[in-house]
């Protein structure tokens, strides 16, 4: 237990010292959210399902924080460990793979929760945004989306040959999903072709899993099912890769 606590503390310090992790977890979502608040205001609109744009985007950007940590920060961190042989040295020192993996999962969840908390605090204090209507369902959607995307991030980090490759792949995956998942233009304003593309993007379902109960529309069972399948598939493959090291 003491080893796990020390390893978790070390992992947290390493993540925080990485500029890309800090920028994309805290600064990027907050800056973009502030811009969107300023552009669309707080009047309900049909383009946002007759919800207030600030509530719509605040809920949606919970998923953006998840994606930023999972696709940009985490894969680079994991790939760096593999590239430098850190994981093999830890295994040679009798540190179980599950200990390192669980420490990285916990640190990633802490970053996601903290990043989301910063957005909520800013939305509530500066823009009078609303808390979730169905809080339990919104928290459930947030939790499942977080675990699913973190599983994808771990898998990407273990598949990429280098840290640079992991960063490039993560950015290429993150940017189109960020723009088309509902965190950019409202889905109803997208063309039919882009809407079909959005339906294929995992972040679309993470956004819906959090946003729908946040706005009082109830849980999106389809989104939760897709995210759960992602968690099982990516988590299983990532665990298998860890055991092969």
Note down, in words, how this protein is organized:
The chain has one domain (2-42, 63-244). It contains ten helices and no strands. It has helices at 2-16, 19-40, 53-83, 86-92, 97-127, 135-159, 163-180, 192-198, 202-214, 221-244. Helix 6 (135-159) packs parallel to helix 10 (221-244). The longest helix is centred in the N-terminal third of the chain and has 31 residues, at 53-83.
Largest sheet: none
Low-confidence stretches: none
Tally the structural domains. 1
Order of helices and strands: HHHHHHHHHH
Report mean pLDDT, rounded to a whole number.
87
How would you classify the helix and strand content by structural class? mainly alpha
Overall geometric form: globular
In summary, what is this structure?
By secondary structure, this protein is mainly α. It has helices at residues 2-16, 19-40, 53-83, 86-92, 97-127, 135-159, 163-180, 192-198, 202-214, 221-244.
